[in-house]
Amino acid sequence: MKQVCASMYMVLSVMCATGLTEIRHIPDPYSIQSGIEANTDILPVEQVAYAFASTVSDGLVLRVPEVVGMVIGNEAPVANAGSSRYAGEDAVVLDGRASFDPDSDGALSYSWRQVSGRELVLSDPSSATPTVSGMSFAGRPQHCTFELTVSDGLLQSPPDTTEVIIVQAFGDRYFSLINGPFDPNKPTIVGFGGGNCNTGSGLRFGGLWLEHANFLTVSTYQPPYSLYGDALIAYLSSMAPDYEEMIGTMGFSTGNMPAIDVAIRINTTYPDRRFAVNRVTFLDTACRSYIDNIKEFYDTRLEGEAFWIDNYYSTMGSAFKNVLNIRFPVPPAQHGTPANWVGQSDQLMSFMAPGLNAGFFISVAGPGRHLQIADDVSPYSFDWNPNTDHLVHRNETLYPGRIPQPVTLQGPNDGDRVTDDGVILTCDLDPDAVQYDLLLGPDPWHLVHLVCQTNTPPEDMIQILPYEPTYWTIRTTDAFGSTTYPEPRCLFSDQISHPEIKNESTQKHYRSIQEAIDQARQGDVIVVGPGLYAYGEKINFRGKAITVRSQDPNDPDMVAATMINAGLTGPAVTFNGSEDATSVLSGLTLIHGTCGILCDGASPTISRCVIQDHLGAGIHMRYESRANIEHCLIQGNMGPGIELEVITNARRFLYNYPTVADCTITNNQGGGIVGETPTVVDSTVQDSGE
């Protein structure tokens, strides 16, 4: 009877842990006759603790019944270790409060442990928010991994991990917040003042700059300037671990060196969307040429972020390619005029002409902060008119570009609820706009769903929204390729059709596909629900052995309904981290990229995708890529269906060796498969090129 008592005790313990109040018995024992095995399936009707009794007889001896207890219907909880933390020598707090139990079955218990990296002090590891201390600097960043599991009293979650990244030693380089306390709902501006081409002092503005942004500066600065980047990310991580707002650096004279070096340092060493520097403002550059710095900064861009440089110059600076240039003619301008004008530009906004607003207006704190100037063109050059204190075209024939302003939204007010009849989300007509994109998202920072793309303001009635709440705005594109949009508005609705993005391995949900990829671990499967994903949803696998797929890659209707629109600004999907066949893209439709898929020294598996309507190739491969392309439709691209680029270096040719199986490649203007010969099996390849 000890075994029976132990089993019953287990059932009672389970009941206490889960809050169940009833034990169901299977009333009749099941006998197993000699040589006969009995298998009995029980279909429970609800979540409850069951006690199963079985007896075994050989015809002479009846064994004492054995009781086995179990709980039916309980799901394992899901651990969420939270986002990573950047630290100097100060303690940091981890956050597992986003962990959850799918069936809300009892309170969670937490268990943290360090699994890699330099040994740190973990205080209160059974808390949802333990403290990590004991950090000390080194000559390079140090990554320390912590693992969290949670339990509902019966079942334990799979582990989830997060990191504490100890930044490089930055010495006595610290920032002062001149308008504290720090507000995580405002953008951040970091200012460096003038100096002697080596050291310098701080830079600070007043008025709306302080009202609309966290304004950081220094008392003095000295080289190496990049270490201020380490100090800045540690500071921001401590103030706002999940920061969503824009970050801008600005410098005057000597201060332009730390301004650009900090931006490059953060974006290169710590490529984290939360703390990416979006904007660098030059105020009469000195002490360097900055040409190489500008290219290096642009190479750090994170997709979907407003990202560029504005340059105000007079006696010491000069114009640069691919930046917004504003010249202050000398005389009457002096070395300090650009900085003085920008510092006071918050008071000039209402007087500037449309298309000529700059300074505060287009800063990360201004109403035009979502401006994105076109890449690889230089029509942006303006002059300061000292008589009016405003900007004018420098030479509209040579530099015809304008500084587009966001449109005025027309529709429900911020926070309104949509009626059952639906809603029209539109805007005023903009004479400079050649395209209007209606964008929706779960919050103001993830406007990833493109509803429509029109040449005039949208007019369609919308009855079903994707989120509760849903944020919306309208992005306009001008004739020069620059874009902007006003601050998104919030809407509520009783009719919701949520486009789910889920990591099937961890059960976590995400706001964008790239966010899910960035947080995925090796072997994870990311399932993308039907929807049109655009603006910031060009995705990069980042070298991870994961699967990104639609809900049913075998269903052509589901593949057609799960679409990434790259917006003609880059490849829809990029593999450039030496991915192999365990990196899988399956069952998505890719449209409107510079190419559909770029394989750069990568050999992923591309399965059951539709790749069409791209400016270049459907799939572009280079640097010895060996992709497996299966059951795909590649059609209607301006370039080849598949382009195999041969790279020649000093010693050898770098060929590509893809395998194409059961694919249809047709109606591509650049040809079917161009380049060296791949392995083609059971495929239709129609060369539509010249």
How many β-strand runs? 55
What radius of gyration results from the CA coordinates?
30 Å
**Apparent shape:** globular
- Quote the beta fraction: 25-35%
What is the first-to-last residue Cα distance?
Answer: 86 Å
Structural class, from helix and strand content? mainly beta
Q: Please describe the biggest sheet, giving its number of strands, its sense, and whether it closes into a barrel.
A: 11 strands, mixed
Q: Provide the low-confidence segments as ranges.
A: 1-38
Average pLDDT score: 87
- How much helical structure, as a percent, in the residues? 10-25%
Number of helices: 8
Secondary structure blueprint with pairings:
Layout: H1 2-18, E1 23-25, E2 48-54, E3 66-72, E4 85-87, E5 92-93, E6 109-116, E7 121-123, E8 131-133, E9 142-151, E10 160-166, E11 176-177, E12 188-195, E13 200-202, H2 208-212, E14 214-217, E15 220-221, H3 227-239, E16 247-252, H4 256-269, E17 279-283, H5 291-298, E18 308-313, E19 324-327, H6 337-344, E20 381-385, E21 390-393, E22 409-410, E23 416-417, E24 423-424, E25 426-427, E26 433-441, E27 449-454, E28 461-462, E29 470-478, E30 483-484, E31 489-492, E32 501-503, E33 508-509, H7 513-519, E34 525-528, E35 531-534, E36 539-540, E37 547-550, H8 556-561, E38 562-565, E39 573-575, E40 584-586, E41 589-591, E42 597-600, E43 605-607, E44 610-612, E45 619-622, E46 628-630, E47 633-635, E48 642-644, E49 647-648, E50 653-654, E51 659-661, E52 664-666, E53 673-674, E54 679-681, E55 684-685
Parallel strand pairs: 1-2, 4-10, 12-14, 12-16, 16-17, 17-18, 18-19, 19-20, 23-31, 34-37, 35-38, 36-39, 37-40, 38-41, 39-42, 40-43, 41-44, 42-45, 43-46, 44-47, 45-48, 46-51, 47-52, 48-53, 51-54, 52-55
Antiparallel strand pairs: 2-3, 5-8, 6-9, 7-8, 9-10, 11-14, 12-13, 13-15, 20-21, 22-25, 24-28, 26-27, 26-29, 29-30, 29-31, 32-33, 32-34, 49-50
